[in-house]
Amino acid sequence: MTTLQEIGEDALIRRLTRLLPLAPDPLAGPGDDCAVIDPGPDSPTLLLLKTDALVEHVHFLPDTPPRAVGWKAIARVVSDFAAMGGLPERFLITLALPAATRIEWAEALYHGMGDCLRAFDAVLAGGETSSVPPQSATVIAIAATGSVRREHLVLRSSARPGQPILVTGTLGGSLRGKHLSFTPRITESHWLASHFKPAAMMDLSDGLAKDLPRLAAASGCGAALDRDQLPLTPGCSPAQALTDGEDFELLFTCQPEQLEPLQSAWPLTFPELPLTRIGTIVEPAAGESLSGGWDHFAPAILNPKS
Amino acid sequence: MTTLQEIGEDALIRRLTRLLPLAPDPLAGPGDDCAVIDPGPDSPTLLLLKTDALVEHVHFLPDTPPRAVGWKAIARVVSDFAAMGGLPERFLITLALPAATRIEWAEALYHGMGDCLRAFDAVLAGGETSSVPPQSATVIAIAATGSVRREHLVLRSSARPGQPILVTGTLGGSLRGKHLSFTPRITESHWLASHFKPAAMMDLSDGLAKDLPRLAAASGCGAALDRDQLPLTPGCSPAQALTDGEDFELLFTCQPEQLEPLQSAWPLTFPELPLTRIGTIVEPAAGESLSGGWDHFAPAILNPKS
Q1: What DSSP assignment string belongs to A125-157?
Q2: Among B197, B219, B198, B206, which Cα is nearest to B283's?
């Protein structure tokens, strides 16, 4: 008898998804921040699909302000559209919670969702509510459609050796509040896709130590990280910057010749948001091994937030 | 302090959805079995969006065979596409479950999902997994896209007084097994949309006593039910047929002049599936009041399955 925590999250997902039929185009299935559907050659945009979930006691606590939980539930998904160079459009909200929940809590949750939907010009398309048993955790599942202009699409699988690795903002310390109030990097992603299109990109949700190896592996490469260059959230250690998770910053690579003009132009456009080169994409065998970061099904001792 | 169970499910949904931004086109928001998105006049099909959830102890039990749970999770959503005259296409699967869950349980669940996806030519587009606290219920949230040919789209809001009300199959007794193994009425819906396009349609998920008033109210009408004509699952009472829920049959209305030719043609095409006229759409004031059916947030005494 084997449990999920003996397998870990990434291996679990691999074991489960191989049991299901997939579209012929691998971009239209799991593997990147969003699935990418091509509606046909006449369409200037591609359809993006994404799902995500927030669980009480895992992503928020019973006493977390519900309006902040609502913002976070939508903002996490918006961040995944930013990671592809796209925009969010239509949201499906599934809410599973105890019947004894106060209506005021649920309404504040939805006020927070509304704040974030309005901030990014997205709308509600539908939803579902279900009760859970009295002592069960509340679960909020969010699915959404989005779109990306064909020429703006950025995948996580197209990094190549020699490309600089960059990250927006600062890393670490999400639990002190940022994980509830962050701004998804939609504006920055759109500017990048329009002016300095990244070679590869993803958003940082589980910590750099977990996510950078994912980007490198998806690209068939390794990553050499310059730990001295990590942009630390004030008061955070490099270890926290690597493993706290829930930074929701953009992690991307660019062509080597783009680096200098990008680093010159960025502060003129985003004077308050750091952009930092933190390493270089290398051949797979030359990459370093990183450990840590958030794993839903790892033993508690390996998870920084447990 | 007011709890969800003092409000009830339909009122809860009304109170929450009014807090969120909606698309200008009401069809693209909540209210029908699926949201309907028009990609533009050049597209022969419309995009359908749907989300749904299964919760342990509510929709299945810890000892329910997981492969049957997986079939049900997908089939419930497929049934919503049938309710619009459409077809399912791409699925997003969100799984929130305890880390101590056995991998064999999760793999059997996905085998069941795969069975149903393959049966209806649908594919996995993406997913998300999360842990829940050790004693929490497992939650499976399913979101999906589908499509419907413009001329096949059937809404629940377009019933008019004088139209016969029909239902496929038999009603009641879902808990004896049907709720785990039902076949969504995709074939029947497609045949109806092609040959005897219904005036209004929905699928029966919460029991006729809950769902027929929803169809009537969405259409601004009432419903006169002929209780003697209810097609009972063998061994079930009329009360069970009205309130058990999870029948996943098609409930629809047609033009009065369609009734006779439809009733003649149906058994030639679907000899093993009953089609029964169970009443007539009437003016709102002339409709009868039905009570019962499944409400996630009603006090336990009102719920047939509690």
Answers
A1: EEEEEEEE-TTSPPEEEEEEEEEEEGGG---SS
A2: B219
Nearest Cβ partner for B128 among A5, A53, A127:
A53
Provide the pLDDT for residue B300. Answer: 45
Please give the CATH topology (third level) of the domain spanning B164-289.
Phosphoribosyl-aminoimidazole Synthetase; Chain A, domain 2 (3.90.650)
How far is the C-alpha of A222 from the C-alpha of A210, rounded, in Å?
Answer: 13
Domain A31-152, architecture per CATH: 2-Layer Sandwich (3.30)
Q: Which among B91, B95, B296 is the top mutation candidate for probing chain A, defined by the most A β-carbons within 10 Å of its own β-carbon?
A: B296
Three-state DSSP string of B119-154? HCCCEEEEEEEEEECCCCCCEEEEEEEEEEEHHHCC
DSSP-assigned letter for residue B84: T
CB contact (8 A) between residue A12 and residue B103: yes
Write the ipTM. 0.94
Among the partner-chain residues B15, B39, B127, the one whose CB lies closest to the CB of A30 is B127
Start-to-end Cα distance in chain B: 24
Whether B123 and chain A come into contact, CB under 8 Å, resolves to yes
Which pair of structure tokens corresponds to residue A215? 């980007």
- SS3 for A64? coil
Successive 10-residue mean pLDDT values, chain A, 306 residues? 90 94 96 95 95 96 97 98 98 97 97 98 97 96 98 97 98 86 96 98 96 95 95 94 95 98 98 97 84 69 42
In chain B, residues under CATH classification 3.30.1330.10 are 4-152
Indicate which of B6, B37, B103, B203 best probes the interface with A, i.e. most A CBs within 10 Å of its own CB.
B103
Percentage of chain A lying above the pLDDT 70 cut = 97
CB-CB neighbours of A263 under 10 Å = 16
Contacts of A99 in chain B (CB under 8 A): 3-5, 296-297
- The domain A164-300: what is its CATH number? 3.90.650.10
- pLDDT tens digit sequence for B40-53: 888 999 999 999 99
Minimal CA separation from B219 to chain A, in Å? 19
Residue ranges of chain B that CATH labels 3.90.650.10 = 164-289
- Residue-wise over A62-88: b if at least 16 C-beta within 10 A, else e? eeeebbbbbbbbbbbbbbbbbbbbbbb
Alpha helices in chain B (DSSP H): 4-7, 9-17, 66-83, 103-119, 178-181, 186-195, 208-218, 238-243, 259-269
- CATH 3.30.1330.10, chain A: domain bounds: 31-152
Q: Which CATH number fits domain B4-152: 3.30.1330.10, 3.40.50.150, 3.90.79.10, 3.40.50.970?
A: 3.30.1330.10
Q: Does residue B224 contact residue B280 with C-beta atoms inside 8 Å?
A: yes
Q: Which residues contact B113 (CB under 8 A, 6 or more apart)?
A: A19, A20, B70, B71, B73, B74, B91, B93
Q: How many CA atoms lie less than 13 Å away from A57 in the CB half-sphere? A: 13
CB-nearest to B137 from A92, A100, A136 is A136
What is the reported pLDDT for A136?
97
Rounded to 5 degrees, what are φ and ψ at B10?
-65, -40
- Provide, as residue numbers in chain A, all residues whose Cβ is less than 8 Å from the Cβ of B21: 114, 117-118, 122-124
Among B19, B52, B92, whose Cβ lies nearest the Cβ of A114?
Answer: B19
Amino acid, res. A301: I
- Min Cα separation B302/chain A (Å): 13
